[in-house]
Design a protein that fits this description.
Elements lengths: L3 E7 L3 H10 L6 H6 L5 E7 L11 H4 L4 E9 L6 E5 L21 H17 L6 E4 L12 E8 L1 H4 L2 H17 L7 E6 L6 H9 L2 E7 L8 H9 L7 E4 L7 H13 L3 E4 L6
Length: 276
């Protein structure tokens, strides 16, 4: 169970500063939080440079915490208003921080609960025109503590949107207070599909399945090392791999993934077979 959280943002990142500024109103006095029954608390860590590069982070400081939340902007050439969540790491090249072929730890339980809460708070506070989405695992940094990115996209207008910043901040605060492991969730990694994971979004919101790392189709061909990395870097024990079957390209790519999973004794299900 996670008790001590660290919220990391870059001083160069307008969305990160927006989120952390809004979040400061929800921070308890550390002395009070330490004596309360649940004892959950969070601290801020603002850095001078980009948070996607591991070398910019004080890993000794990070390792004092149970769970890390990176508050960040999201950039997209297509634009659009988005609130997004994903785990960091690199399946292929590491042009945007981290190490090639390595991903950070994450929690399927935490990702599911914060995604559900972000959806509820967006509706509760009438945040209009924003799309809520998971993203596949991508970019750095690479750290040993379980973590996620939570982002506002995709232009300066959205990064500075105080209502969007408030809703993410409120969501972070809510989950830190109420997070608990759910023994009824089935734990899965996601394989296949596009970057913004439309099928996995529906499943994360509308099923009993909790998703951790997602390996997208643009990393094809998917290797055994990639699948083992996703499994090993999930804090919970994996029940099965969830395949976006149509999003896995040609039959040869699908068959390759199934053979790898069979060698690893990992069950698989298709997104099309899940009620959503």
């Amino acid at each position: 169970m996670y008790k001590k959280y660290l919220i990391i943002a870059s001083k160069l990142d307008k969305a990160g500063i927006n989120i952390t500024t809004q979040l400061s109103q929800f921070r308890k006095n550390p002395v009070i939080s330490s004596i309360e029954k649940d004892g959950s608390s969070f601290d801020f860590y603002l850095i001078d440079n980009e948070i996607i590069h591991t070398e910019n982070l004080d890993l000794e400081k990070i390792n004092q915490y149970d769970f890390i939340i990176f508050a960040s902007c999201h950039r997209s050439k297509k634009g659009g208003k988005t609130l997004s969540i994903h785990a960091p790491g690199n399946w292929r090249d590491a042009e945007l921080g981290g190490i090639k072929g390595k991903v950070s730890k994450t929690s399927a339980f935490f990702q599911k609960q914060i995604f559900e809460k972000l959806n509820k708070n967006s509706k509760k506070y009438h945040l209009k025109d924003y799309k809520l989405t998971l993203e596949c695992t991508h970019h750095g940094p690479l750290i040993d503590k379980p973590c996620i990115f939570i982002e506002i996209g995709s232009t300066e207008n959205e990064w500075n949107d105080r209502k969007a910043g408030f809703i993410i901040a409120k969501t972070i605060s809510d989950i830190i207070k109420k997070f608990k492991e759910n023994p009824y969730n089935e734990i899965a990694i996601g394989i296949g599909g596009p970057h913004y994971c439309p099928n996995f979004n529906k499943i994360q919101l509308n099923s009993n399945i909790a998703l951790s790392h997602i390996i997208p189709s643009y990393t094809l061909p998917i290797t055994e090392e990639m699948i083992k990395e996703a499994i090993e870097k999930t804090d919970e024990e994996i029940d099965f791999a969830l395949l976006d079957w149509k999003g896995l390209g040609k039959a040869e790519h699908r068959d390759r993934v199934v053979r790898i999973l069979e060698r690893l004794y990992i069950r698989h299900k298709k997104t099309s077979d899940i009620d959503k």
